[in-house]
């Protein structure tokens, strides 16, 4: 079955090797198409490929589906274990004033090892969703995303794990904040907001008494600081903010905005990337933010979307001159959002 690359779907299987114009083997026969593969074909100016007939039942397709389901189940279990681990850490920090290294290692490291080969972080964020308290899920997401950003910045595996751990622990100081404030459904008063901001110094104190790595405690203290000096708790500027805190700040904002909270509905994943892009000019570390956006954008290819006019389609290609205005296929039609100023993506799903 010969098909144009813009009509490819996730899980389509190539039945022949695919070469570019100079003879480079871009994708091999037997490859199950992922969103990043479509982008790769487009970049190599390949227009048509041969795939197995859709709907045909083959043993390898069944086996692949079983493996995918098993991997998904394992990821959900390790995610749940990490949620349990952060709950234990919050409890320990609240009761004893310290957290234990063995709990962190037992819950966070398996999480990262489970997701090390995961290329589609967007699907990961869409599929892994806990019904637990926002604070716990947020801590796990920030740990994962901080690890990914560190790897995308070409940090060593050892340093990336440390940065991921800093993200996992960044909000531990919230264990000392009254739950009536943390879970208040309405707008916080000035005094309540000032109390919330203390979680950074509380986290610094707890981690400083629990670990010898200063980078962990400084990340908890500084992840709400901003390059322009308008953050908290101390209003320090870019050069004085620890590099790990700058990375965790990007993951923290992204996770917070894509999550439902008691006082705010979640924002769409692509909308939040656009907001991060805006903040990279003066507030957030531009390198960490841009590398995060650049690695996230290709993962949107193949995702279902709902447009602002109610129509539903699939993202088939990103726009290199405007990441946030991709090409969307609706039935047999293709909508270039960069040429449709009145249209926006309202929702992205699996």
UniProtKB/TrEMBL annotation:
<dbReference type="Pfam" id="PF13487">
    <property type="entry name" value="HD_5"/>
</dbReference>
<feature type="domain" description="HD-GYP">
    <location>
        <begin position="113"/>
        <end position="308"/>
    </location>
</feature>
<protein>
    <submittedName>
        <fullName>Nucleotidyltransferase with HDIG domain</fullName>
    </submittedName>
</protein>
<dbReference type="InterPro" id="IPR003607">
    <property type="entry name" value="HD/PDEase_dom"/>
</dbReference>
<dbReference type="InterPro" id="IPR006675">
    <property type="entry name" value="HDIG_dom"/>
</dbReference>
<dbReference type="InterPro" id="IPR037522">
    <property type="entry name" value="HD_GYP_dom"/>
</dbReference>
């Amino acid at each position: 079955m010969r098909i144009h690359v813009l009509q490819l779907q996730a899980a389509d299987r190539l039945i022949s090797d695919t070469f570019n114009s100079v003879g480079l083997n871009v994708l091999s026969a037997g490859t199950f198409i992922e969103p990043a593969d479509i982008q790769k074909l487009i970049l190599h100016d390949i227009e048509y490929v041969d795939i197995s007939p859709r709907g045909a039942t083959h043993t390898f397709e069944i086996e692949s589906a079983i493996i995918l389901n098993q991997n998904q189940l394992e990821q959900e279990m390790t995610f749940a274990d990490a949620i349990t681990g952060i709950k234990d850490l919050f409890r320990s920090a609240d009761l004893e004033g310290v957290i234990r290294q063995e709990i962190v290692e037992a819950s966070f490291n398996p999480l990262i090892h489970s997701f090390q080969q995961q290329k589609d972080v967007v699907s990961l964020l869409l599929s892994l969703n806990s019904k637990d308290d926002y604070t716990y899920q947020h801590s796990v997401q920030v740990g994962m995303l901080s690890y990914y950003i560190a790897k995308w910045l070409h940090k060593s595996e050892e340093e990336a794990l440390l940065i991921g751990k800093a993200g996992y622990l960044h909000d531990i100081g919230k264990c000392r904040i009254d739950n009536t404030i943390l879970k208040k459904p309405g707008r916080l008063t000035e005094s309540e907001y000032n109390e919330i901001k203390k979680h950074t110094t509380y986290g610094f104190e707890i981690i400083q008494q629990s670990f010898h790595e200063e980078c962990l405690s400084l990340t908890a203290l500084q992840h709400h600081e901003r390059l322009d000096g308008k953050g908290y708790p101390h209003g320090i500027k870019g050069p004085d903010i620890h590099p790990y805190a700058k990375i965790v700040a990007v993951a923290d904002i992204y996770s917070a905005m894509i999550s439902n909270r008691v006082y705010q509905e979640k924002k769409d994943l692509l909308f939040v990337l656009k907001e991060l892009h805006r903040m990279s000019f003066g507030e957030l570390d531009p390198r960490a933010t841009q590398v995060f956006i650049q690695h996230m954008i290709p993962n949107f290819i193949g995702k279902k979307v709902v447009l602002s006019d109610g129509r539903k389609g699939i993202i088939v290609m990103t726009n290199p001159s405007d990441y946030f205005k991709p090409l969307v296929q609706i039935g047999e039609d293709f909508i270039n959002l960069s040429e449709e100023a009145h249209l926006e993506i309202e929702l992205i799903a699996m």
